[in-house]
Records
---
Amino acid sequence: MDFSFSEEQQLLRDSVTRFIRQDYTFDTRQKTVTSSEPFNREYWKTFAELGWLLVPFSEDEGGLGGFAVDLIVVMEEFGRGMVVEPLLASAILAGGLIAETGSDDQKHDWLTPLMDGSLQLAFAFAEPQQRFDLGNVATSAEPAGDHYILSGHKTVVLNGGAADAMVVSVSTDSSKPGSVSLLLVDGKASGVTRTSYKTVDGHNAAEVYFDRVRVPRANLLGAESETLPAIEKVIDRATLAICAEAVGAMESALEKTVEYTKTRKQFGVSISTFQALQHRMADMFIECQQARSILMMAAMQLDTSNGAAPKAVSAAKSRIGKAARRVGQEAVQVHGGIGVTDELDVAHLFKRLTAIQYLFGSTDYHTQRFISA
Amino acid sequence: MPALTGHGPARNVRYHCLKRILPGTPSGLHYPSGSGTVHTASSPCLSDKLNNYGGKPQVNNEYTLEEQQFRSQVRQFLQDKLPEDIRRKSLLGMHLEKDDCVRWQKILYQQGWAAVNWPEQHGGTGWTATQKNIFETECALAGAPEVVPFGLKMVAPVIFTFGNEDQKQRFLPDILTSNVWWCQGYSEPNAGSDLASLKTTAHRDGEHYVVNGTKTWTTLAQYADWIFCLVRTGGPQEKNQTAISFLLIDMHSPGISLSPILTVDGYREVNEVHFDNVQVPVENRIGEEGKGWTYAKVLLTHERTNIARVAHSRCQLQRARELASDTVDGHQTLMENPAFAQKFAEIEIELLALEYTELRTLDAIRTGQAPGPESSILKIKGTELAQSIDELHMEIAACGGLPYVPWQLEQDFDGERIGTDSAVNSWLRYFNNRKSSIYGGSNEIQKNIICKAVLGL
């Protein structure tokens, strides 16, 4: 048994930590979030230069290995800094799907510019009626000669505002419910309209509408109607990634809360001396530790490819969702009035922790998936 | 309503209300009447039968005939007079504009129902605690907004209780008609839970006080014409009971400035109010110098009839049921999802208990026992419940609540709609309403009160 990070992982973590602490301040982040830019493109260049965009990919694909443990090292620090640049949406989700299902040519054409920072991608999967059922796809792609004719509406497409191209989950055969295909679609293709916006936690997203968009058959990823397992696998990795993000965000929220109670004085003493608050911060600490433990468990299961990954990921998402709710709410409550203001970083950690509870399946959903997996 | 005696079964629950919470659901609660039939909306009132049951004292929470008539009158009024646009905003839990609030309060004034807690001589309703409860309940169920409390519910009782005749004549009529908007100046950056440590000073200079300091969390101060403030007229070492005074200050006075504070949902809901050598006429002091703390405490216990916000929660819970029943979740609706249904039921049960805790409090008021530490229970459970209902709404919306597009909730928005209004607002409401367990004496402070005043710790 060895829970310590390798030297490479340690170096990776140090590089991300240094950037988050020195450059990615709360004020800088808020400037990006409140601007009309989807994210800070200079920072994205930095990510590419520092090699972080290689982390989700295997050596064969030109990446660093693509291990889940590497991924959580980066995402945890991103959680602390509440990073809004789209590593998750562009690289882990869309890039992950191309790596999982693409031909050698497709991987070369799309992953190379993705990893060097020059290409933005998104995975358009969510639909208004879908809730958490990835196989419930109404967006249709009818085969027509050497093209597909794509029509439908994808909702809350993460990085949808910035993506040059999108991986879109579609139904190519309405007679086979639950069968899903994947198409690569140029964001500027005729018939694609997008309405972009920021999400409550500061990321960029879009509603994407496809109105009889012609997509070349060569843009099909993997086998027609057979890519649901690949989607589930990639969503599991993305789920693990946001679990790691939550662990970083929770630990940051706890540290800030403890610090605040030491400096805030009421009734002539620091409020950190009140046992009612001390015990709650001890509970937050326990939640953080349990969350970190189950995150490690799930990351290790994902890397061993023994078939237990879906159950392990759901265990992690369920438990971390519960922790994220509690730690986020308590951090706000212990801060008092300042905790519900826009100016306080903890309020934004709370919002991101709330979003993570619902992204890729709510806590309840994953508890139920754990039962049936 | 006789006090709970423990004699005989509690049998006649307010079925009309319950039916409205649980309309036609197979799992709806049914309460047998004394004769073994189900009491329905068309049955005659059973309170007479119950009162005569076996000649023993009965627990009875049926409204009297007069109270039922009053309820019908309130319902009719709401049906006729509540503007639809205000109702929509209120049901969605949106922030109301100044005009929305004033418009509704003026409608209430026209009806003679603006001042629920005032004595009749000043234009109040003179209602009993039960009538007030019926009114608040029906308003919430109909989707009427709560009145802005600072004038009508907070400063007015202080003025008519402790103010002089001049002050009553000068301030009360404009509060009653909602011609003047008031805000509250209590908390300060370093005086939150420990309110008594407030540092804003008022030095006497002839016929004026000169006020310096900063108040914070001042809700909607940007709309306000007047602010009521607790200020320190005594020395820093002096006891609170003699050092704090209650001042009414014109917000247009030179030296007052505002710094907006955005809440977590991005809304300008609160402000810091800065006082820089603000001259306040001595005649704007309520009561005696140094007695402000006493007056404020009276005020804090005065307005507690609707603190649990049971009707508001019930209304939001009913909406959650409707939305969850329309939400597809795999092969069923979300309402049919066992995990969701369990969570929903637990909240519903807690709400039923709180409703009866509130009714017991009303009964205690009716029999002349002043509301004491019960109000702390109502505040804690009321806010916790409202927050858990917010979470239900957030869960129903799921990722549909992620888009931050609050502008589309506005009445005149005619751009492209993202998702549904209820979904995009549900997350914002959840974020915003985390404040409710913090404001008005945080829930931790309320627990301290219970420990001290009830448990004798």
---
Amino acid sequence: MMTENNKPILEVKGLKTHFFTKRGVSKAVDGIDFSLHKGETLGIVGESGCGKSITSLSILRLIPSPPGKIAGGQVLFKGKDLVTMSEDEMRRVRGNEISMIFQEPMTSLNPVLPVGEQIAEALRMHQNMGRKAAWEKSVEMLKLVGIPSPEKRAKQEPFQLSGGMRQRVMIAMALACTPEVLIADEPTTALDVTIQAQILELIKDLQNRLGMGVIMITHDLGVVAETCDTVAVMYAGNIIEHAPTEKIFANPRHPYTQGLLDSLPKIHEDQEELQTIEGSVPSPYNMPAGCRFASRCPHQQPICHEKQPELIEQNDGVKVRCWMYTDQWTAKMVKEEAVK
Amino acid sequence: MQAAADKKVLLEVEHLKQYFPVKTDSLFKPKAYVQAVDDISFKLYEGETLSIVGESGCGKSTTGRAILRLDEPTDGKVYYSGTDILGLNKKDMRKLRGDLQVIFQDPFASLNPRQTVKQILNEAMAIQEVVEKSKRMDRMQELLGYVGLPQEALDRYPHEFSGGQRQRIGIARALAVNPKLIICDEAVSALDVSVQAQVLNLLKKLQKQFGLTFLFISHDLSVVRHISDRVMVMYLGKVVEIADKKDLFDTPLHPYTRALLSSIPVPNPELKRERIILKGDVPSPINPPKGCRFHTRCPFATEKCKTEEPALRELDTNHMVSCHYAENFK
């Protein structure tokens, strides 16, 4: 559901998150831009270490500091810059206007507090609710996310719940204050497929009812295809392609996106051998000067190793960071053809 | 796949049970058991890949561990080339372990961090006495070649490698002793898709090259579809369906298999499928439901399902299913 008419609710501009360690500077996130509208689901995909989780933590300023630091850029939430906001103001945004669901609910819930109490705590802090009202609302939230006998479950501690139920509690907690943006960082990766289907359905349903913008961070391209409106593909700290979901799957532009989709085993067809991407990701401590994918790219040219391409919007709205889709490339290729 | 009759059975599991005792609240209450694997039987033919799929807690890993006697099974028989391996003494079992190798999910946890790759491979060969001491160096170099690692790797430690490379070391170690059967327990689950593709290709290549038999344990159905010849679906310690890969994916006969297949997110937004969303969670294996174990979540459950346990029966050639009403799904 893209709504073009209104202004984006969240805008990330040139965000850079670097880690200053003994080994040097790790450029985990190195200049990314995207925006999110009300009711939209944006998928951020990429393989481990590409910076997708660091991006989400940076938005909420949850980067461990030191060694981490937001080294540049802006995160505009309803026009206000979260990067320069005071810690007090930030606390009012976090969990209230922008919420987050993490991958492993067991480590992100308090293990010795009844789950209902944990949801109520957020309500008391952010919404100034009284103890009783907060508890009632918390039971209501548990009911909303589909937990059977919520009154009983609210009094239980996290270890007494199954993995799927814990994830539901996390979602209930994240949604208790009706946030405008929900960041879901691998919300179903730790769950079984039948439970995953339940949780994804739940997030979609709640989004339709509450109209929030969702950022879905995942490595699972299947989850992206089924839940997201637009997708940003990350590689080595950059967004290398950003497009509406149908377009990315029907016609991936960037050689990395193409390689990623080709390397998936397909459930509906048989193939003898899977496509692979040769080589490995460059070290975040020592990024190449040119395109970060150049050394693994089947189409690499000298220019790819010299200068990093920009993320450029094509005629049909697909944004791609690759020299192949620029004027320089076309001119050069034409010349090469002529020489031949 | 050829017909079952003219294939050689490499491994046969009969009525395998694996119960783990759990702590009870009181000394006087009867002891409780997790019925992780409850009376399963299947055959593994030479040179094939049989996959076990199912959700967490269904007993797929426990089955693999019980076959290797990493956990001593509670009851049942496991025949390997005709001998019952559960009856073997320690010494004979150790000898047999050369034939039965395993690759685990987390290659970092299963490689000794204080040993170099050379020591890791050397130890495997020394224990099984497969290669003479003088020829071991050549053999190690050969092994690295098979799994696509550079020769310099021999003097390095596991932490110096990436996840995919570590998994290759694990594969090299398994190959070092000339195994016949390799149990891959979630062997590619921890890897990124592009690396996963490399390791899957490698496993397929090695299977052809050395005529290996794989028991491939995984929760990822797309991977299973890619690598298997036959697939076995487990739910709560029971086998619910076994079939040739094509039959299982094209015409699943058990309601659980159907729900499982429909739950997988498919990386193709154009494809809109009918999705069967199961209600609720998997029941506890300490006190599994009576009758059919799936009846609490099955959309088609009847009174009969609540009381009578369905037997695993052959409905089509090589297509076994345990559901009272499987005919209706044909």
---
Amino acid sequence: MVEKKRKKNLSFLERIYVVEIFKGMILTFKNMLRPKVTMQYPEVKFEPPASYRGRPVLVQERNGVERCVACGLCSRVCPALAIEVQAAETELEKERYPQKFEINMLRCIFCGFCEEVCPEEAIVMSKDYELVFTNREDAIYGKDKLLIPVDKLQDRLEFLRKFK
Amino acid sequence: MSVWEIIIISLIKILIIVVIMFLTVAYLVYFERKVSAWIQNRVGPNRVGYRGLLQPFADVFKLLVKEDIVPDAANKTLHKLAPFVALFVAFATYAVIPFGPSVNIFGHDIQLVVADVNIGILYVLALTSLGVYGITFAGWSSGSKYSLLGGVRSSAQMISYEVSMGFSIAGVLLFAESLRPIDIVNAQYGWMWSVILQPIGFITFVVSAFAETNRLPFDLPEAEPELVGGYHTEYSSFKFAGFFLAEYANMIIASCMIVTLYFGGWQIPYIDKLGFNETLTVLLQVGAFVFKVILILFVFLWVRWTIPRFRYDQLMNIGWKVMFPLSLINIVWVAALIMIFNL
Amino acid sequence: MPYLTIDEKRVEFNQGQTIIEAAVTANIDIPHFCWHPKLSVSGNCRVCLVEVEKMPKLVIACSTLAAEGMVVHTHSDKTLEARNAVMEFILINHPLDCPICDEAGECKLQEYAYAHGKGESRFEEIKVRKEKRVQLGPFIKFDGDRCISCSRCIRFSDEIAKANQLTFVKRGDSVTITTFPGESFDNPYTLNTTDICPVGALTNQDFRFKSRVWEMSGTDSICIGCARGCNTEIWVRNNEILRLTPRSNEDVNSDWMCDKGRLNTFKFVNANDRVDGTMIRENGELKKVEWSEALVKAAAGLKEFKSTEIAFIGSSYATCEDNFTLVKLARSLGVNNIDFTQHILPGDQDDILIREDKTPNSLGAKLVGVKPAPNGLNLEGILRAIKEDKIKALYVMEEDIAALSNEWEEACGKLSLLIVHATNHNRTTLLANIVLSASTFAEKHGTFVNFQGRVQRIKPAVGTEEMDRALDGMNMSRWDKFGTKFDRWMQGHKYDAKPSWKILSLLSLQLGGKIKYEMAEAVFSDIAKTINEFNDLDYDVIAELGAQAKIKQTLAV
């Protein structure tokens, strides 16, 4: 038999194991008396910090226009191919806008690459983690669900400016 | 007593016990979820009913309405039979567990045990060994390598630990000079509990009991990280519920056995000296039995959420190289006690 | 041969070549914006500056003639420093609007900025703004901001298109490109400037903002706009063709193609009037039926007539494979009346690319034998015979025969049986008894023979119900590779169409014939075996750039 080398040789008490078992059990028993950390979800809701990566949303400027210029970088960088963008021409100065912007929330893995790559700060991760749908079609979020007014996203935008 | 009276009384006892068993098993599951939650600083089930007390029924209902899947590669007959074997064995064992001393109800002197047989302990040993058949059948008939490995491990584990379990019991029997559970309880009158007289035997018995019931740290037959679900990988719905209930029923039996053999059964030390009337005494004693069983069950759960699973080689090492010699030493120790103190 | 040394590599050159030309032959990449191998040297972008030993200053590789024994360094410290400086200089007024710009992904400036730029600019002032969204010509939008004044487009319209329409105006950083007063940038070749524009200043109006270039798959093909057969690339996303671009082939089209070919030859593939599945006329209306039913009906219909009562019409739009199989089927039925028609637009021809013959495969159809057998009737004869009720059944493949003339339309109406292979609904399908839906050029394998006798291959770029993008080895974009049927980008319509040679071979099966082709390649190997002009050719020999058929000059159309 190969001699097993340990960092520290076990003492006799440790080797008979029973004492160690009791030590472990005392530890877990102490834990039982500690305060609980569970949140009662539907009544109490988790308010995520600014660094939280919830569902990606599109920033809507105060004049009601989306920031997005449909460059398709988010779509290209998305490792799960969740984002599909169709650009079109607009009379606005930005020339180009997303006629269609769809995120398949079944594909999305909340990695935040889209946000990181976006040259316009137009797509950001929100704090929304409540995503429920009952069929595949509902899981594809279009512009109607994705556009969020910029005022509601200040937290995240400031976070990005500070740490990105 | 006429034959009919005996039959009727037995049937009533069986009915009461079966109902109580199902309820206790159900609430043991609830209790386990609560204990695990507390140990992990969580709350545990608290949605279904007051403090989640109806959770077990929701669980069972969910299991019953699930699809019952029988794999194509399975041996259909054995696959269906296996959970019933496990369940039957688990429940049949309760027959010989005494819950209290004899009571007088409506003029009948009734023993608080379904079957007061004089080889009760042998009966328990025999049935628990049969219990492994349920698991082995399930493992073999599923036609899945994970199930098969789980079944094989289970039988190997049972055989290994049955030995030290038997020798541990032998120590108790030396004192009681009887295989009747009631005699064993009576032999531990006062503070003469086996746990005090033969602590080594107690330890080997408890460890073997853990192994026999496939509870952590000995749950190798269903080791999730290695074997998916072990022997019940291919079971779903009602049949899975069967195995599930059987496991918890086995835990209760093991606790009852530990209480009966080592903690003086229903005995409360020197209660007869306090001069209560007979009914109160009996009630207190039944209560004491239930209390002791619950304590042991709590230890079962407590251990499960504290100690990680053994490796297979460690399991075998402990079984044959530690537990077996220890239980032999225990017998020598008990024999010496009897010799010296002429107990 | 004289030689020079570029980056310690000995490079041979012809007298008169510039350094950059010599480098290109040796596969050494020297960055360049204004230099284009097909255009004259302008030398205004300065990004090709290289260090030549014993010369006091850096020289531009595009206009410095290579000389014997020259030692050139393209990666010395001095060169790199100069290149960085030039990049920074060019980027001073170039807007950072890559997210909006259509050129992104195939932009030379983007690539060089990435490869040779510093990634930062010291320019802190306000960038010069110029006119955006200028409609230079019917198909071209010009963005003055993005222009780096390389003059490629000006030189192209002067030298290649032979239409002096573009020029620089103003000076310094206000310089911009415009058409001469009163002119529109409307020569037949304008869209080539969008290909050679190294930035996104000139963009294709038709393709503008439709897709990012990396989202599409590219498939080598041939333009079907005229008998030139310009080599093209078909760009497809979501099973829809979004644009065509020319592919370099010195023997056919150089690097160019005409605007008509680029814009008008692919839209019918996804048009609303596509025939989707086979149809049979019942009670005067076309009804969609299963392929098997239509083929059984067609076979039964043909069997009712004597071979002299049937005529076949081939097509110069269809591939050699299709026409060859048609001829084979006609022969197997003993039908001698077979011909096809050319579509010539007299005078619409120039000495650059455009040809009078507006079909891609007239020569091919002729070569594989779509012509009346010795006692058979030609097109006119067939028309006359239909009028005289001598021919009662007509089998038309991929040709809108009723649109040829009113006479033909009337004649088609007189027929007892008219079977048509069609890609789109047209005047002939309006009269047809059975319509078999044919794959377009973008949905099948096949060969065209251009007016020079050059055999060139087309490949499927658009999936049909029987051509699967993954299983049949078509080119795939990233989206195609990872998409599932649940993804909207994979739900582009797939038409229920088959290539004509396959339809004919299935029909032959119903007629008890012996034509059993499974692959276009098998048809072509039969062509190569039986027809002298195609001897020794196969798909591998034809490859990307085509191969010459052995034709006598007199045969040429």
